[in-house]
Amino acid sequence: xxxxxIIIPSRQELFLPQTVADLLNKAVGDIEVIAVLDxxxxxxxxDKRLKVVxxxxxxxxxxxxNAGAEHATGEYYLKCDAHCMFAPGYDEALKVDIExxxxxxxxxxxxxxxxxxxxxxxxxxxxxxxxxxxHPDDLGxxxxxWMQRARERKDILLDEDMGFxxxxxxxxxxxxHEHLTGMHEEEGYGWFMGEPQEIxxxxxxxxxxxxxxxxxxxxxxxxxxxxxxxxxxxMSNASRKPGNAHSFNFWWNNLWEERTHDIDWLIDRFMPxxxxxxxxxxxxxxx
Length: 287
Known about the structure:
By secondary structure, the protein is α/β, with parallel strands linked by helices.
């Protein structure tokens, strides 16, 4: 039986114990949970399937994911934020529908942390890249929910997706180590920014002809922290903006030398996209 290694980068997380317990209790196959404590301590449930990696001082989210991968022994990796709840049997459901060049994202709900339950909101089944020049003062290639596509394709339970949030992804160890070499590099991005952009664009545009796939047969629920809970991995504008600017410049201007496709190819694949003008190539002088 193939193993799923679950990597949880965490920094001052209020709900890490609940997330770890949920993952352990809901799994039906062979898993290991690797909690990376980035500069702090936490009381976690005792379980032989749990590994704890501790940094004495903060190293950042990207370094924490890489550290978790170094300790992983599974054929598949699931990375999630430290404030997530999962469907029963999530691990086997994700393993059934995957290829070695895919990144698979479960259906996403909103988590009500106080009661560890789902909020009564529509799930997120698709996301599109937001038109960057809608906010020219803060250019970025961020993913946004694509509710119209979700309603139009509601009966397709495993489907291509343009982008994703970054709070949860699932992929083979082969894809992580052999295809996405250099993933979670800190140069330019900093400690935190640009994770789903780096993973997603390398998957879609690289020579392995990969895909981001949305699996609606299983789900996770993610906590929107907002003012009530605040950010556990806190970011100042001084650290956020340079990382975001690097990510935008690198991918929008096709600076990745290993690419097989330009980003225009990906945009064309999913057009029409909400918020994108039909003549966007003319506007931006794209040949």
